[in-house]
Amino acid sequence: MKPWLDCSKGTVRLSLHVQPGAKKTEAAGEHGDCLKIRLAAPPVDGKANAALLAWLAQRFAVAKRDVQLLSGDKSRHKVVLIQFTATDEEVLRLLGIQ
User: Fold this and answer.
1) Each residue's pLDDT tens digit, 51-93
2) Residue from 66, 15, 65, 16 nearest 38 by CA
3) Which of 20, 25, 36, 90 has its CA 20 to 30 A from that of 98?
4) Total domains, the chain
5) Confidence label for 45 from pLDDT (cuts 50, 70 and 90)
6) Which family is annotated (predicted)?
7) Which residues of 15-36 are buried (b: 16+ CB within 10 A; e: fewer)?
């Protein structure tokens, strides 16, 4: 359905474009083949990555250990894997995307 979303085998895989230093953390629509996330954390000492993973864990109501950064540690483009069984529609609802 969405090029940035893959729900299969009990996991949700997201391709993200992250914009750190925003006023608030929120999903901000699509950015190319990625979902854009505005992040209210500075891109310093891994704080943005930690804030992103914590925000996703909170949105999906899973433990932080169930959210893993697969790639993009030092990049705005990140791939995240969440241990969570859901449909595409449920993921869109949880992320606040219409």
Assistant:
1) 999 999 999 999 999 999 999 999 999 999 999 999 999 999 9
2) 16
3) 20
4) 1
5) confident
6) Belongs to the UPF0235 family.
7) bbbbebeeeebbbbeebeebbb
